[in-house]
Design goal:
It holds the Pfam family Tropomyosin. This is Tropomyosin. The chain is mainly α. Helix content is about 95%, strand content about 0%. It is built from two helices and no strands. The protein is rod-shaped and about 130 Å long.
C-alpha cells in the first residue's frame, strides 16, 4: 500500500514536472513567435526602403544620363554629372546593403520558423506524454480504490472468522 502511495506521489511529481516543461515550451514558442513577427515587420520595412531607394536610383540614373548629354556642352554640367554619379554609386551601395540585410533577415526568419516548429512539436509531444501520464494516474487510482475495497472486505471476513 505504501508502494502504491509512493508510486502515486512519484507520478504526481512527474506530471507536475511535465506540466511545468509544457508551460516553459509554450512560453518559448510565444517568444519565438514574437521574434518572428518582429523580423517580418523589419523585413517589410527594409523591403519598402529598398523599393524607395531603387526608385530613387532610377531617377538619379535618368538624371545622370541627362546631365551626361549636357556635359558635352559645358564644364559646369560635367561637374554636376560627376556629383550625381557619386550619389548614384552611394545609393547603389545602400541598395546592395539593404539587399544583403534582407537576405540575412530572411535566413534568420527561416531559422526562427524552424525553431518554432521544433518547439511546437516538443510541446505537442509533452502534452501527449502528460495526457498518457494522467490516464495512467487515473487507472492506478481506480486500481488503488479496488485494492482498498478488496482489503476492507478481507479485513471484514477476517473479523468474522
Amino acid at each position: 500500500m505504501d508502494r502504491i502511495k509512493e508510486k502515486l506521489a512519484q507520478l504526481r511529481v512527474e506530471a507536475d514536472e511535465n506540466s511545468a516543461k509544457a508551460d516553459e515550451y509554450k512560453a518559448k514558442v510565444k517568444t519565438l513567435e514574437t521574434e518572428n513577427m518582429q523580423k517580418e515587420q523589419e523585413i517589410t520595412s527594409l523591403s519598402h526602403k529598398n523599393q524607395v531607394l531603387e526608385a530613387e536610383v532610377e531617377k538619379l540614373e535618368a538624371s545622370v544620363k541627362t546631365y551626361k548629354d549636357e556635359a558635352s556642352s559645358g564644364a559646369q554640367a560635367g561637374a554636376s554629372a560627376e556629383s550625381l554619379q557619386r550619389k548614384v554609386q552611394v545609393l547603389e551601395e545602400e541598395a546592395e546593403e539593404s539587399d544583403r540585410t534582407i537576405r540575412e533577415l530572411n535566413e534568420k526568419l527561416r531559422q526562427t520558423d524552424v525553431k518554432s516548429g521544433h518547439f511546437e512539436r516538443k510541446v505537442q509531444a509533452l502534452e501527449q506524454s502528460r495526457d498518457q501520464w494522467e490516464t495512467k494516474y487515473e487507472e492506478m487510482a481506480k486500481k488503488y480504490e479496488k485494492a482498498q475495497k478488496d482489503l476492507e472486505e478481507l479485513v471484514g471476513e477476517i473479523g468474522n472468522i
